[in-house]
Amino acid sequence: MLALLFLLFAALAVGCALAMVAQRNPLYSAISLIGVFVSLACLYIMLAAPFIAAVQVIVYAGAIMVLVVFVIMLLNVEVEERRTGRLKFLVPAAVVLAFVLFAEVAFILASMQEFYVTPASASANVGVTHSIGTALFTQYLLPFEITSILLLMAIVGAMTLARRGGLLSPNARVIPGAQQLPLSIVDASVGIEDTRAVETDTTDEAARLLGYERLRDESERE
Amino acid sequence: MKQRGCSDTSACATSQSENNEMEPQLSWYLALSAVLFTIGVTGVIIKRNIIAMFMCIELMLNSVNLTFVAFSSFFQDVTGQLFVFIVMTVAAAEAAVGLGIIIAIFRNRESLDVDEASILKL
């Protein structure tokens, strides 16, 4: 029974992975990848790791794939065109390397049968949240803290990479406090083609240049 | 050691040695992980779209996670699952930064083809 379930989920995972590579539309690839993640989560449950299975679905199939699909839709990705005739000399090398890999897998399958180890059954408490949390906050506290620093760096890096660099667009709405403003926003006589910028030191000066101070006074007067 | 975690008799009976062939072995999971990793490597090599390559990298990370969880479950040690947790965090960070890079490349080149982004200058 468990073997049948394993074969079902393994076939689902491999089939979805092959479909992901074979698809040329990135959106269909992303949906196939979600199938891989879900079938891997089922395999984690079979391995008596319910916490990891839940995190797999939430983080991978949820957060990361939503991010990927969002970027795919944001960038209006075109369907990849097929190109042939490249890297012809690598085909024999690929065949040899694939043969080596299958030989390795066959060796593992043949030799590992001697080491029979029992998987953790459902009543074992290896994969439950309690044991993972206990180990994570005692023995492996340092990797946990390093991971938090890594996440902070990722946040800062993603914001730095994804924001528009250089001068602002003339049509951009500029909030007070911005340190660099296009000259065309401040001075209407300058055309929008002029990409020079004025620099302000303080928020008050930026607000004054933008006319926010005057607007605020008018609203207070009313 | 062999019968650890068997509380009821029916679960113990199915893990007796005469029924070994019907239980998924550790090597099955390792073979599945190797196959998934190979598919991921193949995708990274043959794909031209940078987002598709990114997703193939995610597939490779997941296959390694499967190895971790399989070893952790079969050897009754929680350490492997902790490292899966950390790998997932790294994958989330990688997704954020990688997609930021993809957006920056698309803004500068109006294309997601890796062959057109071969010069490392944005």
Write up this protein.
- The complex is a heterodimer of chains A (222) and B (122).
- Chain A has 222 residues and is mainly alpha-helical.
- Among the domains of chain A are: 1-78 and 124-144, NADH-ubiquinone/plastoquinone oxidoreductase chain 6, subunit NuoJ (Four Helix Bundle (Hemerythrin (Met), subunit A)); 180-221, no CATH class.
- Chain A is 64% helix and 3% strand.
- Chain A has nine helices and two strands; from the N terminus they run H-H-H-H-H-H-E-H-E-H-H.
- Chain A has a two-stranded antiparallel sheet.
- The longest helix of chain A has 26 residues, at 50-75.
- Chain B has one domain (10-117): Helix Hairpins, CATH 1.10.287.3510.
- Chain B is mostly helical and 122 residues long.
- Residues 1-19 of chain B have low confidence and may be disordered.
- The longest helix of chain B has 31 residues, at 79-109.
- Chain B is elongated, with a radius of gyration of 20 Å.
- Chains A and B meet through helix 1, helix 2, helix 3, helix 4 and helix 5 of A and helix 2, helix 3 and helix 4 of B.
Describe, in short, the structure shown:
The complex is a heterodimer of chains A (222) and B (122). Chain A has nine helices and two strands; from the N terminus they run ααααααβαβαα.
